[in-house]
Amino acid sequence: MSKHTIILGIESSCDDTSAAIIKEGKVLSNIIASQHIHTLYGGVVPELASRAHQQNIIPVVDQAIKKAGILKSEISAVAFTRGPGLMGSLLVGTSFAKAFSMGLKIPLIEVNHMQGHILAHFIDDSDVKIAKPKFPFLCLTVSGGHTQIVLVKDFFNMAVIGETIDDAAGEAFDKAAKMMGLPYPGGPLIDTYAKEGNPNAFRFSKPKIQDLNFSFSGLKTGFMNFITNETAKNPHFIETHKADICASIQRTIIDVLMDKLKKAAIETNINQIAIAGGVSANSELRSTLEQLKQELNWQVYIPKFEYCTDNAAMIAITGYYKFLKNDFTNQGIAPLPKYLLAIN
Fold first, then answer.
1. 3-state secondary structure 176-187
2. 127 to each of 21, 26, 124, 182, how far by Cα in Å?
3. The whole model's pTM is what?
4. In this model, does residue 335 exceed pLDDT 70?
5. Fold adopted by 137-302
6. In this structure, CATH architecture of domain 6-128+308-324
């Protein structure tokens, strides 16, 4: 038996089945099986997602263990995403983790998906040494389902100090893309087309929300009206102005995010700033943060691309820190589709 702490992480909250092996905080493998069937429907279909997880989970876990070059008997504990996410998808990962834990008689560790995104910053990677944020720090977590500003005091002391009151930033990207006729997932395509466009070509009104909270529903409605009006005048409007439209809506969404983040940094007097979640892979968001690093004397932490979107390495690293403090769960555990991030 290995004397090292080796964690198997399992992530199945939405439409990616992922398994990872982490040994003493260092990633040995991080395997992700994506589901392409949802492209046909313009969004994730929960029933199809859970069926695909059932097909993928055993091969993905097997591949992660083989790539890591370890034996199943060396695994110290299994960590899994308990929530938030799609119920059917979470059930597959939870059930597998419980069975794996029982079969090997090893501890079971439940992980909040959003905490996993934040702690992805503490993954040790064999390729390049990336600086890790120092506590306390602010983390802007942005994805298709969440937009939050989290005050991170340590690994297990986090408070959400700002969040969206309606739609998430990632959903705003995807819905804007859909209105333009771009295939799902549209967020990365907007990022791609925006590189060739003028971010000041079109103006969209920004929501005026108090405190550190966000809102994107009004922006989506405004964008829909803009597209409807312009295409009524010129049926080829989207095609002829695609890059400028993408650059302009992307700039607006990122401005909304950055305005609140700057406000949070001032209010908390914290200059350690991190981003996490799928939208943190957006190239404009990353470059904007790098600019603010210079302008505002921020210490900025941006995860590697592979740890931005849903992945099991972030679940495994969270499981690793939970393992060190003997924070285990039991076989009676059930998934939580709505799992608030409130850890003290």
1. HHHHCCCCCCCH
2. 16, 11, 9, 35
3. 0.92
4. yes
5. Nucleotidyltransferase; domain 5 (3.30.420)
6. 2-Layer Sandwich (3.30)
